[in-house]
Amino acid sequence: MRILVTGGAGFIGSNLVRRFLSDGDSVAVIDDLSTGFADNLTGLDIDFFVASILDENALAGAAAGAEAIVHLAALGSVPRSVENPVASHSANATGTLMVLEAARRERAYVTAASSSSVYGSVPDLPRVESLPTRPMSPYAASKLATESYVLAYGTSYDLPTLPFRFFNVYGQRQAAGHVYAAVIPTFIDAALRGVPLPLNGDGLQSRDFTFVDTVTWVLADAVHRRVRSSVPVNLAIGANVTLLDLIAELEQLLCRELPVEHRSDRVGDVRASQSNPVLLRELFPDVPEIPFRTGLTATVDWFQNPQSSSQATVD
Ligand SMILES: NC(=O)c1ccc[n+]([C@@H]2O[C@H](COP(=O)([O-])OP(=O)(O)OC[C@H]3O[C@@H](n4cnc5c(N)ncnc54)[C@H](O)[C@@H]3O)[C@@H](O)[C@H]2O)c1
């Protein structure tokens, strides 16, 4: 298949591009490198458009002939959106609309990344898709716009679409060392540099950490089978790991105690996040459920030796 991956130079995108290539697909990427890296795609046989999805002409060129679009381009991070909500809205909400317009012209299948953050302050756990949404940050609101537009194009234009709600994805090629980095790369990077782990809050916040190979497996399967859904689908397998659990796992893997630097809670962060994966399993009965220890080990290995081509843990 000819597939366009928006945001393909980012963490999840660059893992996904490798999966599509190994499946024999032809891949185009559009990425403005605002948070991604061209190096993530070095040596891969793809058509790479370095441009914003907000650039209509560049996007049309990248989407030409695409049978499917996986829409991952976005400005991630809750704190980034609290600092600059307009930038997050432009990339995430307006950007999604642009991508859907390109898909409508090509009659392409579309799957896109929304986020578990849309559940926000809804107290019920685990999260099932029928719960209401209550965004707590501009990022979450922009992701609610993303998934809403994807659903609306499904019904208004009979475009085959499937919005996913990603939970906390981790794995090889996730960027560390920047102010908006996610917690797992931040902790691994600090541990390997021998500096204290920066811990916001009391460490009892919990997350449904999902290994990137599970996410790319599901996305590729969705594209190849053109799976559509009239509701957003949680893409996580129901893990419930606190940040203190994460630190303990890292201490076991690295065989030493890891000092922690305590910081205050972050504005807009949810306390607990866990998926109820019933709908995911219904649509993707063979979804690979990779244990946290396995995924974390592969991630630490990659941080210790980033040049190694990471081995996929699932076929
Ligand atoms: N990683 C997670 O835990 C997580 C959780 C929930 C949702 N998501 C969503 O999954 C998607 C991928 O996330 P990621 O972790 O790989 O992040 P990432 O920042 O590594 O990748 C996003 C990519 O999009 C690109 N991009 C941003 N704005 C763009 C624009 N206007 N035009 C073109 N490219 C643009 C960036 O340069 C980057 O390469 C995002 O939509 C994100 O919101 C991720």
Notes on the protein architecture:
With 315 residues, the protein is α/β, with parallel strands linked by helices. It has a domain at 2-175 and 209-237 and 275-289: NAD(P)-binding Rossmann-like Domain (Rossmann fold, 3-Layer(aba) Sandwich). 39% of the residues lie in helices and 17% in strands. The chain contains ten helices and 13 strands. It has helices spanning 11-22, 56-63, 78-83, 85-106, 138-156, 183-193, 212-225, 243-254, 278-283, 292-304, and strands at 2-6, 26-31, 47-50, 68-71, 109-115, 161-166, 168-170, 197-200, 206-207, 209-211, 233-235, 241-242, 260-263. The strands form four sheets. Strands 3-2-1-4-5-6-11 form a seven-stranded parallel sheet, sandwiched between helices. Strands 7-10 form a two-stranded parallel sheet. Helix 1 links the parallel strand 1 (2-6) and strand 2. Helix 1 (11-22) packs across helix 7, helix 2 packs across helix 4 (85-106) and helix 4 (85-106) runs parallel beside helix 5 (138-156). The two termini are 18 Å apart. The structure holds nicotinamide-adenine-dinucleotide (NAD). Nicotinamide-adenine-dinucleotide binds at residues 7, 9-13, 30-36, 52-54, 72-76, 91, 95, 113, 115, 166, 168-169, 182.
Short description:
With 315 residues, the protein is of the alpha/beta class. It is built from ten helices and 13 strands. The mean pLDDT is 96.
